[in-house]
Automatic annotation (TrEMBL):
GO terms for molecular function: DNA-binding transcription factor activity; sequence-specific DNA binding. Signal peptide: none annotated. Pfam families: DUF6597, HTH_18. This is AraC family transcriptional regulator. InterPro entries: DUF6597, HTH_AraC. Residues 169-270 form the HTH araC/xylS-type domain.
Length: 273
């Protein structure tokens, strides 16, 4: 599989990104961006918590949570999303452990038991796409205490579930073309690069990723634009109009606000709060 992660590193609305320091082993790096979760044996969730802005970062997450007070467990799959939202504030105090895996959008299907169609903006029970994973991760959260202990055990499990025969070269070639151009290539150019018809490629994207090529391109362009804005001490928005093939400044700002919910200046302020 192409190491697409070497040319694309999506970010969230805040800095640093969750799980930045918990990167996977080399064998999983082409598919998984990071792990994240509780760093202590248990985490005390306070009565009041500030909502967090969640933006389309083009990654997908599997999140496992163990409530030690009620001995209840849940596993959820958070599919690729194309709209911003605020997390709900915490309204209850409890003792929990959680462990999550953050996948690149092109890497999730090689672990799944199911196609990715209809997974856009979903938050489903993990068994819908990953049958039998709950029991393994429930035991992991019960039998281990620290995230550093959990990661190597989880990696061995994930490697056992990795099915490289499910990868599709047409999808990977198209994804490389989109990432390498920072989302600025026209869809016809992407199809020409892969040498198959647009109709075939769109069908494959819906099956393996869950969204259309055009939506992937738009999200990748937005992510690259956001990184330029976030990490440039001083920037001129007009410079990005040409760089990312927008028609004008208004087009860029509307596209950014569609995915981020706020203006670039507001987004930058939120990131470093």
């Amino acid at each position: 599989m192409f190491n697409l992660s070497s040319i694309y590193s999506p970010i969230t609305s805040q800095y640093p990104n969750p799980g930045d320091k918990y990167v996977p082993c080399d064998a999983l790096k082409p598919y998984i961006a990071s792990f994240w979760g509780t760093e202590c044996p248990e985490s005390d969730i306070p009565n009041e918590g500030s909502p967090i802005l969640v933006i389309p970062d083009t990654c997908v997450d599997i999140i496992f949570v163990m409530d030690h007070r009620t001995n209840s467990f849940s596993g959820h799959y958070s599919g690729i999303n194309d709209r911003p939202f605020m997390t709900s504030p915490v309204v209850e105090t409890t003792r929990v452990s959680y462990f999550a895996i953050r996948f690149y959008f092109w890497g999730i299907h090689v672990f799944s038991d199911y196609h990715m169609r209809d997974s856009l903006n979903t938050f489903e029970d993990s068994n819908v796409y990953f049958n039998g994973w709950d029991s393994f991760f429930k035991n992991l959260l019960i039998q281990t205490s620290l995230i550093e202990e959990r990661i190597p055990i989880a990696e061995r499990f994930l490697l056992s579930k990795l099915n490289i025969h499910k990868k599709n070269d047409h999808v990977l070639n198209a994804t490389y073309c989109i990432l390498n151009s920072k989302g600025t290539k026209h869809i016809k150019e992407v199809c020409a690069y892969t040498a198959i018809s647009q109709r075939q490629l769109e069908r494959l994207f819906l099956e393996y990723i869950g969204i259309s090529m055009k939506k992937v391109s738009n999200l990748v362009r937005y992510q690259n634009l956001w990184q330029d804005i976030a990490f440039s001490p001083h920037y001129n928005i007009l410079d990005f109009v040409d760089k990312y093939s927008f028609t004008d400044q208004s087009h860029l700002l509307n596209a950014f606000k569609k995915y981020h919910g706020v203006t670039p200046n507001q987004a930058k302020k939120i990131m470093f709060e």
